[in-house]
Design a protein that fits this description.
17 strands; 3 domains; 24 helices; single chain; Rossmann fold; alpha/beta; 678 residues; eight-stranded mixed β-sheet; disordered N terminus
């Protein structure tokens, strides 16, 4: 249910955005020196003196923790590794528990610069700093005494060793599985010498309802709520398996007043802390009234606890079970899921350990199926004897559901902001109008075919896509003197970037330069459809004092034809099944050139009329669809697309030639003076 956390980089000189969380701003320079500042708070800290007093009070309060207390509702942590989902889960847990501030103060990620990540605190977005250097993070967040380490088994040794250099850290959780045993032993030896508690490796972590959650312990938020992990119970449990710890949360909550604290020590052969370590803590903690132990085949920790119970060194009632009883059904040694889940002799089998625990006075059911009922029986007895006083059940907390999760569950719907029917990138491969990109290549559709799919949502005939490609080649460039190329060149020589220079050229396209394709298509097709003779059409346009779009050329004439027009005209007349509008335009040209030799059908006119014939005659469109495309201005897009090729070429040419800033010569400008000022 967590949101997708988003990174936002801010320089030290920039002010923090106005989010509810007042967060420490990491410096851009990794490891930069800086004075220690306060950790993220949900409200302004008030004046400096009050803030310092509050910090010292909190620090003194944390220092009063008894040896058996790992976590309180004021425990704050650092998360090593880029795991925003786990951080969001911790914050969601904090929020439903009613904590005053988040349990995560900062993150450490050595593979990027200092930045911020955005998270939800309830329905409010807050910012958490991410540091590249662990030392900088811990120096700027002196209250952090717990680190959750998500580093891989390859790198966790170095990061944990580095963490052990900082005396403020008292608890480390190592999530990685498969850490080499010799490295694990080295870390455990150093941690023990420094009196640092390590949970893991190969663990999901642990949870203390109402106080603190390590990473993803307890599962998704609906499981947290159903297992009542948002408030304190009376049962402390220890297991090896992180997955089974989730099951224990459920079993305990259904058969007692809930979990007091739960720890999954991890499945590797050498866990940082053992069953014994945590059972001793629970036994010494006056708020923990009974204990649950869920062991597994392999190892001998259960015997140690059994002996402690026999010797009255652990006195609180323990409901225990060792999993793996099915191993006796195999004639060979069975390696279960965890590295340590292998019986190396009869003494490490589940049956032997269950028997020993039962003989010591621990409460061991006949089977795991009776585990919950046994917990309930012990709990009920403690209540009847006044050892446990059940408290009124508080109101079930609520947490705002992330939009993405709610939509996935089908709980909400909303109208989309955009609609699109031409492409879809969501599947295994990109689709153009329903055609996989692999098909585009396999069938050699070419750029003309791609345009037919993305512009017209049709697979046009080969002659049509070939003609589209010919148009792009013909209109790609017309020399440096035309307005589009000129503007691009001037912009490039002014030091503008490619996109800016391209846009400078494209903005000149209009009715006077290159943008007459749509106009020519509309005028010639309307005249043809109305059965108006070419001569009457020319006369009518003259009477309206309107130019005929697509007719006329500054340089070319009837005696000096534009080769581009000739190439396209020849192709259309040879390959198109119908070219009536183009033929009508050629008849109009005969009328106009009789008046003036340069009033020829130009590229715009030929492309416009030929595209009308293509859209109407290729069989892919109805007459209404073809006319709609012409009306919507799609044909000018061919000129824009093709001419962009040439404009980019002019930009690259100017840069390659290292041309200086352009200044137009004054002697090529006519300066007009106002006669009235003389």
């Amino acid at each position: 249910m967590h949101s997708q956390a988003r990174a936002q980089r801010l320089s030290p000189s920039q002010p923090l955005p106005c989010f509810a969380l007042k967060s420490v701003e990491p410096s851009r320079k990794a490891g930069a020196e800086g004075a220690s500042t306060s950790s993220p708070n949900l409200t302004d800290s008030g004046n400096t003196q009050a803030s310092h007093h509050h910090k010292h009070h909190e620090k003194a309060e944390e220092s009063k923790k008894e040896w058996y207390t790992l976590f309180t509702d004021k425990t704050v942590s650092a998360v090593y590794g880029m795991h925003p989902g786990a951080v969001q889960n911790m914050m969601d847990f904090d929020h439903v528990c009613g904590r005053k501030k988040p349990s995560v103060q900062c993150m450490v990620y050595p593979f990027s610069g200092n930045h911020f990540l955005k998270f939800y605190w309830g329905s409010t977005e807050i910012m958490i700093p991410v540091y590249q250097k662990m030392g900088e993070a811990l120096r700027k967040h002196p209250h952090v005494d717990t680190m959750i380490n998500f580093a891989s088994f390859r790198s966790v040794y170095g990061s944990v060793n580095e963490a052990l250099d900082f005396p403020q850290l008292r608890t480390l959780a190592i999530i990685a599985e498969g850490v080499p045993e010799n490295r694990t032993k080295s870390l455990l030896k150093r941690a023990a010498a420094q009196n640092v508690t390590i949970i893991g490796p190969a663990t999901v972590g642990g949870i203390k309802p109402g106080c603190f959650r390590i990473g993803n312990t307890g599962g998704m938020m609906d499981n947290i709520i159903s297992s009542k992990l948002y408030r304190r119970g009376s049962v402390g449990y220890v297991s090896r398996s992180g997955g089974m710890s989730n099951e224990l949360n459920n079993i305990v909550s259904r058969n007692s007043n809930g979990v007091y604290e739960g720890i999954a020590i991890g499945g590797d052969r050498f866990p940082g802390t053992t069953f014994v370590d945590h059972m001793r803590r629970f036994d010494a903690d006056p708020d923990c009234k009974m204990m649950v132990l869920l062991g597994e085949v392999g190892g001998v920790d259960e015997y140690t606890i059994a002996n402690l119970v026999k010797e009255k060194k652990i006195t609180k009632p323990i409901v225990a079970w060792c999993m793996g009883t099915c191993a006796r059904m195999f004639s060979y040694e069975v390696q279960f899921g965890h590295a340590g889940a292998l019986a190396r002799g009869q003494v490490e089998t589940a049956e032997a350990k269950n028997t020993a625990m039962r003989d010591s006075g621990m409460i061991v059911p006949k089977s795991f199926q009776d585990f919950g009922a046994t917990i309930n029986r012990v709990y009920t007895d403690l209540v009847s004897r006044g050892v446990i006083t059940p408290l009124p059940e508080p109101a079930t907390p609520t947490l705002p559901m992330d939009y993405s999760w709610a939509r996935r569950l089908g709980l909400i719907r909303k109208p989309t902001s955009f609609v699109s029917s031409i492409s879809d990138e969501r599947g295994e491969e990109l689709m153009y109008a329903g055609v996989p990109i692999s098909t585009v290549y396999q069938e050699d559709l070419g750029i003309g075919g791609v345009i037919s799919l993305l512009w017209f949502k049709r697979r046009l005939p080969t002659y049509a896509t070939k003609f589209i490609e010919m148009i792009l080649m013909v209109v790609a460039d017309h020399g440096p003197a035309v307005s589009g190329a000129h503007n691009t060149i001037v912009a490039a020589r002014a030091g503008k970037d490619l996109i800016s220079s391209l846009c400078a050229g494209l903005l000149t396209i209009g009715p006077r330069f290159g943008g007459a394709i749509d106009g020519a298509a509309a005028q010639f097709s309307a005249a043809y459809d109305s059965a108006m003779s070419p001569k009457d059409f020319v006369t009518e346009m003259k009477n309206k004092n309107q130019l005929i779009m697509g007719i006329g050329h500054l340089i070319k004439s009837v005696d000096n034809r534009d080769k581009r027009v000739s190439i396209l005209q020849e192709y259309v007349l040879q390959h198109f099944p119908e070219a009536s509008v183009l033929k009508y335009a050629l008849e109009v040209e005969a009328v106009t050139t009789a008046k003036k030799a340069n009033l020829i059908l130009n590229v715009d006119g030929l492309v416009g009329t030929a595209m009308v014939d293509l859209l109407r005659g290729c069989g892919a469109f109805t007459r209404e669809e073809a006319d709609a495309y012409i009306k919507n201005g799609v044909l000018n897009g061919l000129f824009v697309l093709g001419r962009s090729i040439g404009l980019i070429g002019h930009f690259l040419d100017q840069v390659r030639l290292n041309q200086p800033l352009y200044r137009h010569p004054w002697d090529d400008i006519t300066y007009i003076e106002d006669p009235s000022s003389a």
